[in-house]
Amino acid sequence: MRSATATAARPKELFDREAEWDALVAFARDPRPGPAVAIVTGPRRQGKSFLLQQLTSATGGFYFGAQDVAEAESLRRLGDQLARHTGANRPTRWSCWADALDAFATLASERPLPVVIDGFPELVRQSPALPSAVNSVCRRLREAGRSNRVRLLLCGSAMPMMRRLLGTASTSADLQLKILPLDFRQGARLWNIDDPRLALQVHAVVGASTAFRYDPAGEDIPAGPDDFDAWVCRTVLNPRLPLLWKAGHIIEQEPDGWDRGLCHSTLAAIADGCSTPGAIADWLDRPATEVPHLLAVLHDCGLVQGVPDAFRPGVTRYRITEPLLAFDHAVIRPNRIALGQQGPAEVWKSARSVFESAVVRPHFAQVCRDWVTGFACRDTFGPRPVTASAGSLPRGQGHRPVDVDVVVRGEVHGRAGVLLSVGRACWDEVMDVHHLHEQLQVLAELADRGEDVSRARPACYSAAGFSPHLREAEARGEVVLVDPDRLYHGE
User: Are residues 148 and 189 both part of a single domain?
Assistant: First the structure.
């Protein structure tokens, strides 16, 4: 058997993930006697498999990745890989997962040995008894006592399914690690983009997934702001490259038992600007009672996120969490036939305005909200922001509600939900003092309704810039201004 390396240095091929790497290495190399179990989850395409492969390589551990095959083939592949790992003359053949898992328990008597089973939900599709086998081996390993030091890591996407499948194993795990998506600043570094506005545009198309960055299309990086349109045509709209089809595969990879076509249409409704269950039901022309289940399915798979309206907590607004999925439903899917007939350049010429209105504009607003909770310093809004969400302020009969893009709330002297700021986000509009007056009017209306606005500051977020008069108001402390440079480099 291969010996563990003297150190478990973080691989240079691994982008970011310092904290996750340190946690996994500490678990895998923990010298204390006795077995241990870790559960690694998170959305797809965030580098979980690569991270665990690098871990086993650095620590002399064992990695097994699931494929969508029958149980007998999975067990045969597992036996073949274990024989290569141990140097055995011939592989062991098991008839069930319980026997296979028991075999791994005998490998860690002298030193801690990480054993990774990746793609756990996929294995369960063909082996429904696998979760109970895992629970049994976990229990037996703990009862075996101090002689065994196996470090069993169970990995899979679809987090709610992982919790259901593993049952008591998840509650007794020694480590539960969730690999979350990289943030927009990490995304800019991942794609080696220095220009903040260009970084925002690229992030609106492909997000910050390492899977897309190391896709064949990811080898092509926009040369600068003027190259963005050509880059879209060369890569994400190019039928010869797999990135064009990746978004559709995201849905296909999720578990069976749900209407994929209806889920695609639900995502299309959200991409078209329908953010509430009622609006989505109207778009689909389906009974309103069907939509909550569809949204729950998509939420469980990490494809959509629902956030209460900042001013009407009883109203939940949904957004697509994977940028490429939003781009696909707004731009690619409606033009898939045209792409084959006209080519990427012609399609993009007509779809560019849809990208601006339906993709990058709401994406920019979300990035601004992420900046508030992730990067804004205490001095920006006073108390530390706790939430930043969109809100819709109702007005009288016959008047449209006022939409507020960034509503910031925080905790003040133990009182939660205190309003700290209201702000508007404009992607392609230079903002002026009238935008400030709009936010001041919102604060006045909120005060009339009994909201405490004494700590609230108006804010303007713009990717196109601010007028000199608005900059002067900022200098007087009358408004918070946030541009792309501050999003990526400031507090």
Answer: no
Q: How far apart are CA 346 and CA 319, in angstroms?
A: 28
Whole-number Å distance between alpha carbons of 148 and 405:
55
Residue 165: give the domain boundaries.
Answer: 18-178
Of 43-47, 136-140, 189-193, highest mean pLDDT: 189-193
Q: What is the pTM of this model?
A: 0.88
Tell me: do 257 and 292 sit in the same domain.
yes
Give the Cα separation of 218 and 196 in Å (integer): 18
The pLDDT > 90 percentage for the chain reads 59
Say which CATH number the domain at 446 has. 3.40.1350
168 and 188: one domain? no
* Domain shared by 189 and 169, yes or no: no
- Same domain (yes/no): 443, 460: yes
Q: On the CB side of 353, how many CA atoms lie within 13 Å of its CA?
A: 1
Q: Are residues 254 and 115 both part of a single domain?
A: no
What sign does the dihedral 248-254-256-262 (CA atoms) show? negative
What pLDDT does residue 1 have? Answer: 39
**204-231 burial, b if ≥16 CB within 10 A, otherwise e?**
bbbbbbbbbbebebbebebeeeeebbeb
- Residue 2's pLDDT band, with cuts at 50, 70 and 90, is very low
Say which range, 165-174, 314-323, 431-440, has the weakest mean pLDDT. Answer: 165-174
What is the helix (H) or strand (E) element at residue 385, kind and residue range? strand 385-393
Residues 282 and 304 in one domain: yes
65: closest CA among 52, 47, 84?
A: 52
Q: For 259-291, what is each residue's pLDDT tens digit?
A: 778 888 999 999 999 999 999 999 999 999 989
In this structure, are 402 and 460 located in the same domain? Answer: yes
Gap between the Cα atoms of 458 and 171, Å rounded: 44
Taking CA 373 as the corner, what is the angle to CA 273 and CA 295, rounded to the nearest 5 degrees? 35
In the numeric block, which tokens belong to residue 182? 């990289």
Q: Is 275 within a domain?
A: yes
**Cross-strand pairs, 65:** 118
**Pick from 366, 394, 411: which residue ends a domain?**
366
Least confident range from 17-26, 164-173, 224-233: namely: 164-173
Domains of the chain: total? 3
DSSP 89-128: SS----SSHHHHHHHHTTS-SSS-EEEEEE-HHHHHHH-T
Closest CA to 480 of 489, 490, 488, 198: 490
The mean pLDDT value of the chain amounts to: 88
Whether 432 shows a pLDDT value over 60: the answer reads yes
Tell which of 147, 178, 209 closes a domain: 178
The larger pLDDT score, comparing residue 255 to residue 327, is at: 327
CA gyration radius, the chain: 25
